[in-house]
Amino acid sequence: MKNEELYGYIKEMENLPEKEVKIYAAVGALIKEGKDVSNLTISEISNRAGIGKGTTYEYFDSKEELIYKALHYFVIDSLKVVLLKMLNEGSFKDKFYSIMDYMWESRLGEDTIQSIMSFVRNLSPALKEAPVKENPEKYDPCTATAFIEMLLKQYLNSGFEEGIFTEEDDSFRKNVLSSQVLLFLFLMKDIREEKRKKEIEDYVYDGMIMLLNSRKK
Question: In this model, does residue 1 exceed pLDDT 70?
Fold first, then answer.
């Protein structure tokens, strides 16, 4: 998927009917509370969304379709600000600091990341059979992952092209980036003082660049 298509897709999500968004938000809230996605009921979801069960069925033909679409919405909506920052103009370093700033200000943390992982992990086999009648490939859970994979690769390639690091292996690059983001989340959790924010960001970024240059030939 090209960048302009991703912009359009995120814009489309932002213009969904209010009640449909409430339904997706209800599923996300229940998952964050530790509910098993496979055992959720339409009644439970509708009650959390504050709408009637009959209204829910106006948007979805089955619980499976609802959950399938909610997964896709939950992942993209949770990370869309980060995704858009990676699409914005700017240097490799500027984008990384911009993402850390967002994580700091929004307190996007391990709970959100763990919720997304839990959501994907708990999908029953039935939900992986695309219970969506129209454009099933659009809501495939793998599509959300593909968006993120695409942007990560583009972003890391930009750093290589800028001459910031020498590492060429995609897997190693992604592992380093992921480990440093998790390190920032860990440090951010225990440090709240604004005056320490820049110190933490520099430490994480410098560590990432060092690792990405650690296997020079």
Answer: no
